[in-house]
Protein 1
Amino acid sequence: MTADRNQILFDRAARVIPGGVNSPVRAFKSVGGTPRFVQRAQGAYFWDANDKKYIDYIGSWGPMILGHGHPAVVEAVQKALLDGFSFGAPTEREVELAEAILARVPSMDMVRLVSSGTEAGMSAIRVARGATGRSKFIKFEGCYHGHADSLLVKAGSGLATFGNPTSAGVPPEVVQHTIVLEYNNIEQLEEAFVTHGRELACIIIEPIAGNMNFVRASVPFMKRCRELCSEYGALLVLDEVMTGLRVAFGSAQSVYARDIPGFEPDMTVLGKVIGGGMPLAAFGGKRHLMEQLAPLGPVYQAGTLSGNPVATACGLATLAEIGKPGFHEELSRKTQALVSGLTEAATKAGIAFCGDSEGGMFGFFLFPELPQNYAKVMTTDNKVFNTLFHGLLDRGVYIAPALYEAGFMSAAHTDADIAETVAAAAEIFNLL
Ligand SMILES: *Cc1c(COP(=O)(O)O)cnc(C)c1O
């Protein structure tokens, strides 16, 4: 047997990088086995350190909506590189990208560019607190908004209590203003507003939660979030770092606006797709809120690499491609084909299975019905998932190495890739 280069690299990595990875989910801790070190990628595929090819359904956890190495994006990045990597002074492309983002997400009047979703989420909450003069905010269990201190929190015991830190190094005092509620629980939400409504700066929510697999906020729940925020003078902040421009041209907020007339958040957090794979994220919203930011207003926020010229070139080229007519329709068609193919294969094999998707984002559960909240997601079968994960990996299909993550389709995936994926899954289902 030839040496496993993934294992060799992982051993080397583990000596110099904590856990061998620069972001925890990459370590395969929940599924076991050796993480694949990516050597190169093209279109819908990447090759690991052993030169084994995989169909990639992670796409860097969302950004690679065009697939890897799209020629127009590569060209834009190469051209930008020659003009300089970073200046710490304004550039035309930042203005162009801001305009392009606002054209797609019209609930925002102004936007500020940053380098990561974590930064964007943290800054949006700071603006919400600064603009309202209030400290408390609501987040929902199972939603992830980056790793800022006040957001690393889980529900305390009892209803609508303040949370407990989920990470060492976060003092309890730092999360004392964070109220953690159950996703899709209208009753608990109403109770929290009755108790704390006038002290709440905002609700922050993933409209379609992609960090507990794939769980939609129900339309009545989202509607109630909007109504209560308006009634109590709190802001509704949609974290669309994952869903933004991926689930629809106008992001998840445009999907909810179909069912809730006039639906708009006060602020939106974006990342992933808008950078096309480069470190770029953004937060934006109504003009009077965004004008709270320095240098105009009292809310401080800054970044050495914010609006980086190479990242904005990558984002602009990506946005130009996904703005082409029919882009999301075709992406949706393929995502739906994958989810229904997997569902059919599992059902034939007598395995409990259900899935859901919106645009180019999907999720599935080895469970008879779609979970509505984090506690329910936690009850789904991890052992069967791990068997499926490793079976697919052996067969050259790379899905998220954890049950609690969403999946991502790209424009580069072909019907043949989807058929191959479904056939691989069917083989595994029949062995279970
Ligand atoms: C990925 C993600 C973040 C964090 O973005 P980073 O760029 O990893 O800091 C925040 N919110 C949501 C919904 C995400 O999916």
Protein 2
Amino acid sequence: MKDVAYIGTRDKNIRMKASEAILKGICPDGGLFIPEKMPVMEKSIDELSKMDYRGLAYEVMSLFFTDFTEEELKYCINNAYDSKFDTPEIAQVVEKEGVYFLELFHGKTIAFKDMALSILPYLMKTSAKKNDIHKEIVILTATSGDTGKAALEGFANVEGTRIIVFFPNGGVSPVQKQQMVTQKGKNVCVAAITGNFDDAQSAVKSIFTDAEMIKELDDKGFMFSSANSINIGRLIPQVAYYWYAYCQLVKKGKIKAGEKINFTVPTGNFGNILAGYFAKQMGLPVNKFICASNSNKVLYDFFRTGTYDKNRDFMLTVSPSMDILISSNLERLVCMLTSQEETADLMKSLSEKGVYSMTAKAYDIVGEYANEEETFQAIRVMYANADYVLDTHTAVAYASYSKYVRETQDTTPTVIVSTASPYKFAKDVCTAIDEKYKDCDAFELMGELEKISGVAIPAPVKDIEKREVLHNNLCEREKIKDFVRDQLK
Ligand SMILES: *Cc1c(COP(=O)(O)O)cnc(C)c1O
């Protein structure tokens, strides 16, 4: 098997093995790691369609994580994708109203982040062992709501690691917040941080690129890493479910092996959809990716015009995990379409002026978006027609997909990537279905949602309002470095 090296998006002379890139998270110059050459899937769809999720995940990940042994990688996969998921398929495909929903919310925190964050701690521990690193790994994470909880669940009580999660004060749903502040584990810390998600992400990034602080903590036996989707240890595991969804459709006789399909992905930081794009580069038969945004439609504008412009008002929407104006992973696509030199220039322009333009284009990615009313309507319509309750993020994708079909008349079979359980956003989901719920309490509405949807309250959020709050920190974003130093005393 050929070795895949990881190089920087701003400097191709930065070059590491997969395990080193997983440990580092981000390049020293602020760039991200990308595979120097995209591996090609050599197994046929027919062969892959016979595999279960773990088997398929191994086929995909072994092509990217080439410095892991078979035993190491299987250890990681088998520990990640087990009975923590409430369905043996791990990622389930369901057909409603002529489209397919890939339900990625059957893990411990009922959002798709579990798909990658269930395995990241194992990949990281294995990487540390392989590289003979004995420092305590400190995971620093900014979250728009779902990453934080999934990372906390993944890393809680994992020997040799600590995790500190920052969520934007007032920027997450009540259920998301309650999930985080009740997190147990002797190595976990959760804090609200002033500002929005982009502020939180920039504050965390400023630590990763602060050589002095890194040295100071290195001397004390700590090493920082990231659980955000900038880490290839998160991105690559997500490639697997695009293959899995495709194989499920073949297995069920819905499509023929080799036939192209579309994917619609509710997008924020551009991690999920980029994993799909990687799958296509490896050989998965995909026609278009529909990149769905909410009212923070910076990506929609980018794919329509070639100009990325974050200079606009940040909106709080009913799909908070997509409330983002700086989609970090887009840098990887930009680099794949241009060069390291050009990417470095564009990212400099982004950080100095908040805007950049480029002419190179990904013709297989289409930008769409849905505003708040369209999102609510999508939930209402799907419920009325199919008794199927969408969460707000998946609803953005469904509404965007409907617009795309109206615009293009494209009838390609389509998978909508379903990123969260409606229970995580019970209040907005119920209100979309019936206005009468608009002043109700989010936690009370879980019982109501059980009646409406006919799906039992998932164990991870049942009675969550009764759990004890264990974390009550508020961090000023200018003081994030002191906050982290304090935690590591
Ligand atoms: C994180 C998240 C998204 C956005 O995914 P990206 O990889 O950041 O684009 C969409 N929906 C939900 C529910 C999420 O948690």
